[in-house]
Amino acid sequence: MPATLPVSPLSETAVDHPQEPRTRDPDQLLRLAQDEFIRRWGEMGATWGINRTMAEIHALCYITATPQCTDDVMQRLNISRGNASMNLRALCDWGIIRRLHRRGERREYFESLSDVWEIFSIIAAERKRREMDPVLETIKRCQQMLDESSLGKAAARQPQVQATRERLANMEEFMSVTNKIFQQFVSNARSGLNRVVKVLLKAL
Amino acid sequence: MPATLPVSPLSETAVDHPQEPRTRDPDQLLRLAQDEFIRRWGEMGATWGINRTMAEIHALCYITATPQCTDDVMQRLNISRGNASMNLRALCDWGIIRRLHRRGERREYFESLSDVWEIFSIIAAERKRREMDPVLETIKRCQQMLDESSLGKAAARQPQVQATRERLANMEEFMSVTNKIFQQFVSNARSGLNRVVKVLLKAL
DNA sequence: GTAGAATTTCAATAAATTCTGAAACAACGG
DNA sequence: CCGTTGTTTCAGAATTTATTGAAATTCTAC
User: Nearest-CA distance from B80 to chain A in Å?
Assistant: First the structure.
């Protein structure tokens, strides 16, 4: 890497101790602020089971509010073309960024959805479908396995069996309610989820 | 390992295609049901950024509703002593399982909290603290960097800067509201969160 | 069509995470 | 004290996940 880059790729400064900006140049400050956000967003994503790079790419598209092409992403995040391509596609599959074609240009650009609530509701819906629903199914199957009709009356009354059945039931109730809340978020996202959430907060 | 174990460790059957139980022996069926739950819970944990084994250990303690010692965990999940010890400690640190001493016994046992709502609220509180709060801080710092007082009036009016400021503001609002909801869950967990959530669902 | 710019794919590799096992440590009864 | 039983720690091994880079493919302007 050259000693000084005109505009360096995402700063390596630790998020917890960001160095004070040494410059008043507005462009650089803007970039520093964006980089800090991108870095932190990537970290958070990582702890929530989302590939750090994917989270960073989305953060970049979101925070700049400007369509980014593959090369923009590669250069800014300092990643390979293949990596950029695969994660951009994954983000498109999720539906939280969109492809953008420009007249007379071969190159494709990507832009983030602008509505945070919509972004969140898409993610929530998908994770519910992929991760909560299968657990609920499993719980139901486990409950069947411990039914009187599977075990017989005597066995079904064993304390061990009763205890497990109760725990399964509690967990099922919890997950059902959680699922419903997710559902509500999702179905309300388009029409002012904002307001809906305020209602919710008053109710609590 | 002996050729046949009286009760085998956690079955390796894929969760998606569990084999039909071949036995009507209630003890084995109970164990099969528990194993299926444990396995699925571990998978879900993994996609949410929680170590699969840690999630499985917790699932084991929860679903059996019976205090488990280190050797129980090792044998049932087929993991090493070190692994069991470290994950049990981590779960204790989170506060979702508890150590249990028995009179005249050296060995320590571990039991899960029984209230699912409490378990969830502990996890939510901790993740909020560790992962949401730092992002909010970062957003605020980024906003400061793009203040008029940092950039000067002219620069602060550049469209690029304005756009980033708006995105930061939207994200901040979203995260603040999410944080408040988390907060509410947590502070209500002890006294019938259940009811609270029902209120919430009506409000939506 | 076709040139060539842009994208996708994927085997190889690198990085990060998780797990093991054995040694060190602690607690207790005698 | 010492022997026994049980727990913790942690360096290295194993496993999983992420990334690269170059070849194959696709697309579009002409």
Answer: 25
